[in-house]
């Protein structure tokens, strides 16, 4: 009888080890509870915790995930992925789908901050089906929003537009005005890039997004939409509106000293309004940017202004600079980024299959061991009885 009890206890402990359940540190749980409404308070709590005092792998992984999440929510640019890797490796090893999804999502966010777009999109593609499986709808919307952003900046506009349509559907379902406004604004910007026939669609989507962002007082998003509206009205020849939104875009930026894209948009609006001194001032300020595309466009605008003002020599020199940056941009996008993005999509599928088969293998192993234990218990019981 004693042996039977020992075997039963062993079976129960085995069953509990196969079942995903974690008892986390109370401070970590408190930080998690504050994450959505007061992310700054959550970050302060996490900074007060010494990782050395966390006694279990579960607590260390949870801490790594929460700290990465808190920094992302507080707009802290993260340049090292060693912390989030602790969470990813742990939750992948135990097969906790919900935490796996969150860990891979925030790993993608860190890669995004590190400007490693291909690696970021790989992690977002891994996180998406895991998030769907765990029924975390809002997180799924954020994942698609990030995928759309990367596709957009890499000029995969058709893919980006499809993704943002999914984001819009999710935002409407969740009644999430912020996510809805972001999805609309990006669709409007993509419509703008398609040409004159799509300008009415772009104006409608951007105007609706602007009103929503204005109502919420969400200045970062409002600034981005203002930038798109300025570009739209510049191309539509509505100079006063273009200037109004260009100035608004710059005024809403937190760091107006390094708002290089905003400088270019305002300089371009002044250029189209034939206010060349103001245009030259802001266009020159935008040249500090490391964006080759913006540099190429800026030099072309400055070359046009120099030609209008009668300085043909300077105009030719500026035009050569524009051509050089265009060539560099083309080579960079064609040879590196595009191939890496396509490979990342494939790598994500491979990784998901590995995680799936690993989870199935662990499940089958636990079930097999439990069946063996049950057979042993029944055998001993029958032996003792007969």
Nutshell version of this structure?
82% of the residues lie in helices and 0% in strands. The radius of gyration is 27 Å and the shape is elongated. The two termini are 14 Å apart.
Provide a descriptive summary of the structure in words:
The chain has 386 residues and is mostly helical. α12 runs parallel beside α14. The protein starts with a helix and ends with a helix. The mean pLDDT is 86.
Topology:
Blueprint: H1 2-18, H2 26-34, H3 39-48, H4 57-73, H5 82-94, H6 97-113, H7 117-134, H8 137-153, H9 157-174, H10 177-193, H11 199-216, H12 219-235, H13 239-251, H14 260-272, H15 276-286, H16 292-308, H17 312-385
Helix pairs in contact: 1-17, 2-3, 3-4, 4-5, 4-6, 5-6, 6-7, 7-8, 7-17, 8-9, 8-10, 9-10, 10-11, 10-12, 11-12, 12-13, 12-14, 13-14, 14-15, 14-16, 15-16, 16-17
**Ends apart, CA distance between termini:** 14 Å
Oligomer: single chain
Mean pLDDT: 86
Biggest β-sheet, characterized?
none
Overall body shape? elongated
Number of helices: 17
Strand content: under 5%
- N-to-C series of helices and strands: HHHHHHHHHHHHHHHHH
Taking Cα atoms only, what radius of gyration do you get, to the nearest Å? Answer: 27 Å
Q: Quick one: how many beta strands?
A: 0
Approximate helicity band: over 70%
Q: By helix and strand content, what is the structural category?
A: mainly alpha
Poorly predicted sequence stretches spanning 5 or more consecutive residues: none
Question: What descriptive keywords fit this protein?
Answer:
single chain
